[in-house]
Amino acid sequence: MSTLTNLTIAIATVFSATSFAASEPIEIIPAAIITNPDKVELGKMLFFEPRLSKSGFISCNSCHNLSLGGVDALPTSIGHNWQQGSINSPTVLNAEYGLAQFWDGRAKDLKEQAGGPIANPKEMGFSHELAVDTIRSMPAYQARFAQVYQKDGITIEEITDAIAEFEKTLVTPNAPFDKFLLGDKNAIDADAKAGYQLFKDKGCVSCHNGPAVGGTMYMKMGLVKPFHTNNPAEGRKGVTGKEADKFVFKVPTLRNIELTYPYFHDGSVWELAEAVNTMADIQLGQALSENETKQMVSFLNSLTGEQPQIVLPILPPSTADTPRPVPFAN
Amino acid sequence: MSTLTNLTIAIATVFSATSFAASEPIEIIPAAIITNPDKVELGKMLFFEPRLSKSGFISCNSCHNLSLGGVDALPTSIGHNWQQGSINSPTVLNAEYGLAQFWDGRAKDLKEQAGGPIANPKEMGFSHELAVDTIRSMPAYQARFAQVYQKDGITIEEITDAIAEFEKTLVTPNAPFDKFLLGDKNAIDADAKAGYQLFKDKGCVSCHNGPAVGGTMYMKMGLVKPFHTNNPAEGRKGVTGKEADKFVFKVPTLRNIELTYPYFHDGSVWELAEAVNTMADIQLGQALSENETKQMVSFLNSLTGEQPQIVLPILPPSTADTPRPVPFAN
């Protein structure tokens, strides 16, 4: 074969792969581009910082565990004093792709989200004031904040900004499905390919689309048939006050869904196959055959990407000025 | 200067440094030598594995946090259902150098220790049987155990063996004081040098010696004057049944003491200076001047070594056979 022919085939392959990917409703997740590594490193320290909680025991990573797909793998989370959380902890992986944060979208971005659990009495149980006092009390943090923000003083704005900057790096590129989208037809098996076709044909993709395969819109949980749950969460209604927003939640990402069980905002379903069937039933009014369910699960499992490689941060020691943790008393 | 003279000086320096180090009651901490990296990696996964607890929320790292000097930095730990632990969590760093494990030495080694908290109803609240069922339920763990142990089946023996193998790597070499011992006279400042001299002259070193600056013996807490505490722990008496062992505890390591506050088995003292003065008083019947205390603290801070660089493990997903976590109900 001539070099020219080889070149032509190569170009044709790239073009065809690119146009295939471009025409699909799911987009690849690109690797994180880190423009400010010092801010990311600072944010990582804060993400793993249990002294941002009243008890000194709970960090962001406690409920968004980066060893476990960015979740705690519990129906609802454990908060200060072992309080039971009100909703399933969503994954922090690829969270930046959400149109807003929390199941009800009440935080507009990751920065605004990061301030929530710190001050929530059922979660980390602290206050922004004490969080700032804590971080400010340690010279090593002072030096890092001064370097990153080029100003004196630390406020909750910088703390949550740094956490968000770290969280933006928590993406999971190179899932088998991404490789498939990019033209590697052997990256996923026949079941997964069939599952993807079903995912589009049945209409799942009308809500689960974009790079995160979700996160792009709000949708009613129980669109065709009601979703039965003991969980009292009403979703967007709590934010907008509108009755029409009752049970309307942010569509969750399906990236790494293999890792982020149990499923739904109430964490009531542990098996992915069951979650798929429930969704088909109550959102689309469809019943899947056993084989279709299997194919759909194969497709969903192909969305597990490369997990972030995190070197555990070493945190600076408390000083005499650091507010002491209050794990047990008031 | 002739080459021969240079060589002579070099040899003399090495010889002098070596003999200086050899004649001192504190020994350097060498870097970990990893002979079985697969076992260490498996042990690391298990160390960070919250599914070894009843709740699915508490791992070894929860109370021996490798971001925080291998401790939780709390007076006593938080266990299952937010139960208050009975004793201060000792650091896992350099723990292998202890003559036994736990404050009362009731476990003969790290392997025996590792089984304790998993099954302790006040700590991880699980059972060895459920721990084994959990690990066995995941194909990725099965493959790793088969590779490391070259046998079928997983028991609590292998689980705790792997955890111990990982923990043996958690050493902190190259502390400024180690560099000083090895001949770098500028590695620690004048206060630290004076503090070390005091540490020897006052008699601290009679208990705090060896590579870990502790861990080599048991000693009564309150040797000269009683130690006042509300903590009911009686130390070795609980193991041996002998009245003479009442309040006799394993001498804790002073390596990384800057990071492992609060101090003593009851975690009652937050400031290192206060801990030093209390020890001088109740163990040695001595009162230190303000300057002596400062020097002693400088010396102790020079014992902070290089912290282990840990890449957070990615844990395999649960399967339909994995016992589900029971965070809230019985």
Entry summary:
Chains A, B: Its EC number is 1.11.1.5. Chain A is mostly helical and 330 residues long. Chain A has twelve helices and two strands.
Layout of helices and strands:
Two copies of one chain form a homodimer.
Chain A (H helix, E strand, L loop, with lengths): L2 H21 L13 H11 L12 H4 L46 H10 L8 H9 L2 H11 L6 H12 L8 H6 L8 H12 L16 E3 L16 H4 L7 E3 L21 H13 L5 H12 L29
Antiparallel strand pairs in A: 1-2
Helix pairs in contact in A: 2-7, 4-7, 9-12, 11-12
Question: Structural class per helix/strand content of chain A?
Answer: mainly alpha
Biggest sheet record of chain A:
2 strands, antiparallel
Percent helix range of chain A: 25-40%
Structural domains of chain A: how many? 2
Quickly count the helices of chain A.
12
With strands numbered from the N-terminus, the spatial order across the biggest sheet of chain A is 1-2
In CATH, the homologous superfamily of the largest domain in chain A goes by the name Cytochrome c-like domain
Corresponding CATH architecture of the largest domain in chain A: Orthogonal Bundle
Number of strands of chain A: 2
Quaternary structure state of the chains depicted:
homodimer
Strand content of chain A: under 5%
Q: The CATH topology of the largest domain in chain A is what?
A: Cytochrome Bc1 Complex, Chain D, domain 2
Of all chain pairs, the largest interface belongs to: A-B, 39 and 39 residues
Q: Quick one: overall form of chain A?
A: globular
